[in-house]
TrEMBL record:
Domain (GGDEF) ranges: 151-283
TM stretches of this protein: 36-54, 61-81, 87-110
Cellular component terms (Gene Ontology): plasma membrane
Molecular function in Gene Ontology: diguanylate cyclase activity
InterPro entries: Diguanylate_Cyclase (IPR050469), GGDEF_dom (IPR000160), Nucleotide_cyclase (IPR029787), Rev_trsase/Diguanyl_cyclase (IPR043128)
Organism: Mycobacterium sp. (strain JLS)
Keywords from the UniProt entry: Membrane, Transmembrane, Transmembrane helix
GO biological process terms on file: cell adhesion involved in single-species biofilm formation; negative regulation of bacterial-type flagellum-dependent cell motility
Official protein name in the record: Diguanylate cyclase
Membrane keyword on record: yes
Length: 286
């Protein structure tokens, strides 16, 4: 616990805490001379059960309950053998009920909240990451990119050309369908790359991908081609910026923000050149 006062525990440390706490409660109850007190003490398992249900897997919850049941049954048998079988059954039922109800309720709540949190990270129309979630997920690419064999992170800003015309000419339903199709096209374009895709607003999308080279042109051209090939009458201007993973030190959010601004500037260069083009802004861009 003193360790937790300084920092959040690792997963291994947290599991160790849960297992050791479980064992300590079990030994205390088994060693208690009064069997009624020992069975009542099994209610303490519910506290560690709640912790496990909140932070860990179902398997660890089941392990904790198995130990709880074994210790409680031993204590109940001691009560029954002392001449109080009815008390043993009632007390055992109460202990088991508490140790089932609390972790199950917490486990269900955590899973339900997890679904809501996952939805909160997504753009409701395209299903892509929203801007906040995109930054959070892309920061993991900066730190974990080398584990994928990559050396550079490329940031891609995609802006659909003359999208207002599509809405005005064909209606907002077609416009929405085009946005969904573009999201799917971006997903196809980054197959094979560790990548994150987001919709940053309106008709603008962002892509972060780990590459084995500092040349983002093939990926950018693939994105342009996938969008141009859609059945909807839509093209895109694509801007890119790239950084070596070993150069991305310090505040990852700040690094990503600068990369997005650089890729955005490159995208506007592509748009000024007529659209349906790719433009790369080379370093240094900050």
């Amino acid at each position: 616990m003193a360790l937790w006062a300084r920092r959040w525990p690792t997963h291994t440390e947290s599991v160790a805490f849960a297992v050791v706490s479980n064992a300590a409660i079990a030994l205390s109850c088994l060693a208690y001379p009064n069997p009624t007190g020992a069975l009542t003490g099994c209610i303490s398992f519910a506290t560690i059960a709640a912790y496990i249900a909140f932070f860990h897997s179902t398997a660890l919850v089941v392990y904790n309950f198995a130990v709880t049941t074994a210790v409680a049954v031993i204590a109940a048998l001691r009560i029954a053998l002392s001449g109080h079988p009815a008390m043993a059954v009632v007390d055992l039922f109460i202990v088991v009920q508490i140790n089932i109800a609390m972790p199950v309720a917490i486990h269900v709540l955590v899973r339900a909240l997890g679904v809501d949190l996952a939805r909160a990270d997504r753009d409701p129309l395209t299903g892509l990451l929203n801007r906040r979630a995109f930054y959070a997920h892309s920061a993991k690419l900066l730190t974990g990119g080398p584990s994928h064999g990559g050396t550079h992170l490329v940031m891609v800003v995609v802006d659909l050309d003359d999208f207002k015309r599509i809405n005005d000419t064909y209606g907002h339903q077609v416009g929405d369908e085009a946005l969904i199709s573009v999201g799917q096209a971006l997903s196809r374009a980054v197959v094979g790359f560790p990548a994150e895709i987001g919709r940053s607003g309106g008709e603008e999308f962002v892509v972060a991908a780990v590459l084995e080279t500092d040349d983002p042109a093939p990926l950018a051209e693939q994105i342009c081609g996938e969008i141009a090939a859609l059945p909807e009458p839509v093209t895109a201007s694509v801007g890119t910026a790239c950084i070596a993973l070993d150069a991305s030190r310090g505040n990852h959010e700040s690094t990503l923000d600068r990369m997005v601004r650089a890729a955005d500037a490159a995208m506007y260069e592509a748009k000024r050149a007529g659209g349906n083009k790719c433009h790369h802004l080379g370093e240094p861009y900050w």
